[in-house]
Write a sequence for this structure.
């Protein structure tokens, strides 16, 4: 650990009596340090960067026809369900689309939806939880019962219902995921707010006439940053699983927008790939989901260790 | 304690009312006309459509409709499935027992794995067993249930004597006795659900056992010379069992979700399977009937978990 970025004091400076106190540094510095010490977390981050590169840069380097199915391959064999071979290293799916190219597009859509929804859900949840905890009394009671009602509906049941009423687009799916995933963060942040609002610095601000917006914005939310960052990672991981499950059940984006979940839906439900032995239609897409979710969870775990917050979930 | 239970019951009642409002709101996401059209069919005349709307009061004020909805629920009427031409109550009465069978076996098995394994991981913390256990639960948590099911089919479907592939399950599994008569059909659904529930439980069990090991009473028990196996059995295990109660209560939504997917993949005729079929055929009434039931089960499960925790753990005073 080097401290080259620290300002160099001019002239001799005496250390504090009783020995030096090691500087904890800014939250960001602390975060970088704890994070880089955790090998699993670094592995998770590297995996995530590789997957993101695969999804965004991949299509630039590897061209495949994803707009019309290839029914006959250049070598004269049938395109649909073709096994891996030259020109299509991971084989073809049941309609005749290149699996490797589809994995890339699917990755982009899955990650996009997961990240935006996870972030949006956390922002909503944090604001809601902070307001509920800060104002307390009847408002807290009312807002938390609304959270309880939301948590009573298992997400997949709710999602299948809504998706069967309205045909989802990418932005609608993000909105829906955000709407159902804000509940957990709301509860966590509300709990922390209850204890934070009794601290002296918040009391002092209130005595000086500071309003609720300032208290929440300047003190309460920044102090729950640990919880928030950790929550975001788990929210993203959960959003990716929920999305893929929804796609698997056939209630998601149209086939023109492939995701890892819809690729598995095609393989398992339409091509019976698990019975026919079309392993290339199942394992690559499945592995992408597992790798992404494990990588994000490893990062989240390391962040939790570094912020030492106790989460109710897992 | 009594005060706490009364307060907690009051909360549950309020949440249940909220659940009915939310469900009612979900139903009214769909305009009355298209809801009626969905049910009477495309070939119905305008008069038939209008007659249906009048009969079911879909043109009445929202308050009247909500009251009618609550009144039906209070009389145990969860709605009518138009595509199966059965009441939702009938469907549930036929399928809930199958869910209890599938879910019950899986829940018991998952708990039997998760508790001792979690304790072993906590005792031998950071050893190879702990690392292996953590690795397994990380991966199981990341595997979507449908993928787990597909992989299990790939591994085991080859051996037709041991288990049967999903398509075959359906023929024998329509009735409760049919399921019991062909227990091998249950192996793959139960295995999938057990692993899914284990993924929800294992990490929690490990960290709760680690917390317990750090308590003073464990140190006291050890320092007074109690043999280690008795320390683990009398103090650690018994305390871990208390957290199982909370864990099961809180995991109900997760278990129900996993159940829906397992039932869909294996054609197992439980509540989740009917929910999926209703969604495919656009039967909103049936879906909402099941949703209300599922939400109530969750509310009651959380209630029992909270009260059970307060009763079992004498240290907790409210």
């Amino acid at each position: 650990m080097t401290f080259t970025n620290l300002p160099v004091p001019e002239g001799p400076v005496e250390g504090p009596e009783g020995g030096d106190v090691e500087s904890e540094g800014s939250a960001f510095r602390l975060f970088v340090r704890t994070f880089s010490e955790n090998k699993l977390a670094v592995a998770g981050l590297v995996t995530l960067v590789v997957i993101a590169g695969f999804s965004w840069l991949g299509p630039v380097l590897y061209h495949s026809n994803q707009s019309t199915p290839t029914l006959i391959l250049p070598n004269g064999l049938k395109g649909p369900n073709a096994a891996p071979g030259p020109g299509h290293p991971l084989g073809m799916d049941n309609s005749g689309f290149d699996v490797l190219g589809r994995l890339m597009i699917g990755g982009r859509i899955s990650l996009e939806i997961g990240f935006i929804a996870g972030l949006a859900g956390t922002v909503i949840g944090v604001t809601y939880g902070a307001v509920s905890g800060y104002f307390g009394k009847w408002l807290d009671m009312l807002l938390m019962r609304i959270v309880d009602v939301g948590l009573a509906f298992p997400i997949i049941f709710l999602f299948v219902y809504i998706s069967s009423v309205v045909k989802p687009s990418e932005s609608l799916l993000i909105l829906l995921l955000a709407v159902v995933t804000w509940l957990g963060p709301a509860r966590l942040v509300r709990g922390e707010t209850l204890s934070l609002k009794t601290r002296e610095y918040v009391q002092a601000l209130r005595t000086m006439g500071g309003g609720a917006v300032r208290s929440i914005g300047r003190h309460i939310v920044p102090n729950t940053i640990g919880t928030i960052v950790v929550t975001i990672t788990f929210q993203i991981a959960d959003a990716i699983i929920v999305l893929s499950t929804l796609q698997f059940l056939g209630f998601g984006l149209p086939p023109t927008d492939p995701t890892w979940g819809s690729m598995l839906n095609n393989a398992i439900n339409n091509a019976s790939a698990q019975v026919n032995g079309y392993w290339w239609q199942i394992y690559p897409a499945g592995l992408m989901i597992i790798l992404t979710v494990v990588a994000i969870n490893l990062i989240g775990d390391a962040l939790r260790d570094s912020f030492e917050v106790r989460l109710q979930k897992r | 304690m009594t005060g706490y239970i009364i307060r907690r019951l009051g909360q549950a009642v309020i949440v249940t009312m909220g659940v009915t409002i939310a469900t009612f709101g979900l139903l009214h996401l769909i305009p009355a006309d298209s809801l009626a059209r969905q049910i009477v069919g495309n070939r119905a005349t305008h008069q038939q459509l209008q007659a249906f709307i009048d009969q079911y009061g879909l043109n009445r004020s929202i308050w009247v409709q909500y009251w009618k909805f609550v009144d039906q629920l209070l009389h145990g009427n969860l709605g009518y499935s138009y595509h199966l031409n059965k009441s939702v109550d009938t469907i549930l009465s036929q399928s809930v027992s199958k869910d209890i069978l599938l879910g019950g076996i899986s829940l018991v098995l998952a708990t039997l794995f998760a508790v001792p394994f979690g304790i072993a991981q906590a005792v031998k913390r950071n050893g190879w067993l702990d690392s292996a256990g953590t690795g397994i639960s990380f991966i199981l948590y990341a595997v979507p249930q449908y993928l787990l099911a597909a992989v299990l089919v790939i591994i085991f479907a080859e051996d037709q004597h041991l288990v049967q592939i999903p398509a075959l399950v359906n023929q024998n599994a329509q009735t409760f006795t049919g399921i019991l008569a062909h227990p091998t059909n249950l192996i793959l659904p139960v295995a999938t659900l057990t692993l899914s529930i284990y993924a929800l439980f294992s990490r929690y069990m490990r960290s709760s056992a680690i917390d317990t090991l750090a308590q003073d009473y464990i140190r006291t028990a050890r320092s007074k010379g109690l043999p280690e196996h008795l320390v683990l059995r009398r103090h650690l295990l018994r305390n871990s069992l208390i957290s199982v109660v909370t864990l099961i209560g809180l995991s109900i939504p997760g278990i129900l979700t996993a159940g829906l997917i397992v039932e869909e993949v294996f054609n197992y005729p439980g509540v989740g399977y009917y929910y999926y079929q209703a969604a495919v055929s656009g039967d909103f009434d049936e879906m909402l009937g099941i949703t209300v039931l599922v939400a109530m089960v969750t509310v009651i499960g959380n209630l029992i978990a909270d009260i059970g925790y307060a009763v079992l753990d004498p240290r907790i005073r409210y």
